[in-house]
Amino acid sequence: MMHSVLKTKVSLIRIFVASTTLAGSVAWGCPYCNSDVGKEVAAGIFNEDFWFNGALTLLPLPAMLLIVALMRFGAPWNSRSELPPAPTAHRTEAPQSDSTPNSETP
Question: How far apart are CA 42 and CA 51, in angstroms?
Fold first, then answer.
Protein backbone atom coordinates (compact mmCIF):
# COMPACT_ATOMS: atom_id res chain seq x y z
CA MET A 1 0.00 0.00 0.00
CA MET A 2 2.70 2.46 1.00
CA HIS A 3 4.72 1.58 -2.08
CA SER A 4 1.86 2.53 -4.43
CA VAL A 5 1.37 5.87 -2.65
CA LEU A 6 5.08 6.64 -3.03
CA LYS A 7 4.97 5.72 -6.72
CA THR A 8 2.00 8.02 -7.21
CA LYS A 9 3.77 10.93 -5.53
CA VAL A 10 6.91 10.39 -7.61
CA SER A 11 4.80 10.29 -10.77
CA LEU A 12 3.09 13.56 -9.84
CA ILE A 13 6.46 15.21 -9.20
CA ARG A 14 7.73 14.03 -12.59
CA ILE A 15 4.63 15.39 -14.32
CA PHE A 16 5.06 18.74 -12.56
CA VAL A 17 8.74 19.02 -13.51
CA ALA A 18 8.06 18.04 -17.12
CA SER A 19 5.17 20.49 -17.50
CA THR A 20 7.11 23.43 -16.05
CA THR A 21 10.10 22.64 -18.25
CA LEU A 22 7.95 22.45 -21.37
CA ALA A 23 6.02 25.61 -20.48
CA GLY A 24 9.27 27.56 -20.33
CA SER A 25 10.32 26.35 -23.76
CA VAL A 26 6.93 27.28 -25.23
CA ALA A 27 7.28 30.84 -23.92
CA TRP A 28 10.58 31.22 -25.73
CA GLY A 29 8.84 30.15 -28.94
CA CYS A 30 6.72 33.32 -28.99
CA PRO A 31 7.59 35.31 -32.15
CA TYR A 32 6.31 38.61 -30.73
CA CYS A 33 7.94 38.57 -27.30
CA ASN A 34 11.31 39.90 -28.44
CA SER A 35 9.98 42.10 -31.26
CA ASP A 36 9.22 45.81 -31.09
CA VAL A 37 5.48 45.09 -30.90
CA GLY A 38 5.98 42.74 -27.96
CA LYS A 39 8.09 45.29 -26.13
CA GLU A 40 5.44 47.99 -26.69
CA VAL A 41 2.72 45.71 -25.36
CA ALA A 42 4.78 44.81 -22.29
CA ALA A 43 5.53 48.49 -21.68
CA GLY A 44 1.82 49.30 -21.93
CA ILE A 45 0.87 46.58 -19.46
CA PHE A 46 3.66 46.97 -16.92
CA ASN A 47 3.60 50.76 -16.63
CA GLU A 48 3.14 52.98 -13.57
CA ASP A 49 -0.62 52.23 -13.52
CA PHE A 50 -0.16 48.45 -13.34
CA TRP A 51 -1.20 48.00 -9.69
CA PHE A 52 -4.09 50.45 -10.00
CA ASN A 53 -5.43 48.63 -13.07
CA GLY A 54 -4.95 45.28 -11.33
CA ALA A 55 -6.91 46.51 -8.31
CA LEU A 56 -9.73 47.78 -10.55
CA THR A 57 -9.82 44.42 -12.29
CA LEU A 58 -10.15 42.54 -8.99
CA LEU A 59 -12.64 45.01 -7.47
CA PRO A 60 -15.83 43.09 -8.46
CA LEU A 61 -14.53 39.86 -6.91
CA PRO A 62 -15.55 40.62 -3.26
CA ALA A 63 -19.03 41.64 -4.42
CA MET A 64 -19.42 38.39 -6.34
CA LEU A 65 -18.18 36.37 -3.37
CA LEU A 66 -20.68 38.17 -1.12
CA ILE A 67 -23.53 37.31 -3.49
CA VAL A 68 -22.48 33.66 -3.61
CA ALA A 69 -22.19 33.53 0.20
CA LEU A 70 -25.66 35.05 0.61
CA MET A 71 -27.08 32.50 -1.81
CA ARG A 72 -25.34 29.63 -0.03
CA PHE A 73 -25.72 30.56 3.65
CA GLY A 74 -28.60 33.04 3.59
CA ALA A 75 -28.76 36.55 4.93
CA PRO A 76 -27.49 37.08 8.49
CA TRP A 77 -30.72 38.85 9.48
CA ASN A 78 -32.77 35.85 8.34
CA SER A 79 -34.70 34.08 11.10
CA ARG A 80 -32.96 30.76 10.48
CA SER A 81 -31.36 30.88 13.91
CA GLU A 82 -34.68 30.21 15.64
CA LEU A 83 -35.08 26.73 17.01
CA PRO A 84 -37.75 24.54 15.46
CA PRO A 85 -40.80 23.82 17.63
CA ALA A 86 -40.41 21.01 20.11
CA PRO A 87 -41.96 17.73 19.00
CA THR A 88 -45.25 16.91 20.70
CA ALA A 89 -45.98 13.57 22.31
CA HIS A 90 -48.15 11.19 20.32
CA ARG A 91 -51.73 11.58 21.49
CA THR A 92 -54.44 9.00 21.14
CA GLU A 93 -57.79 10.28 20.08
CA ALA A 94 -60.30 10.90 22.83
CA PRO A 95 -63.30 8.59 22.88
CA GLN A 96 -66.36 10.05 21.28
CA SER A 97 -69.05 11.28 23.60
CA ASP A 98 -72.47 9.62 23.77
CA SER A 99 -74.14 12.72 22.40
CA THR A 100 -73.13 11.88 18.86
CA PRO A 101 -75.68 9.89 16.91
CA ASN A 102 -74.87 6.24 16.44
CA SER A 103 -76.14 4.57 13.28
CA GLU A 104 -76.41 1.15 14.97
CA THR A 105 -79.13 2.13 17.47
CA PRO A 106 -82.73 2.66 16.33
Answer: 14
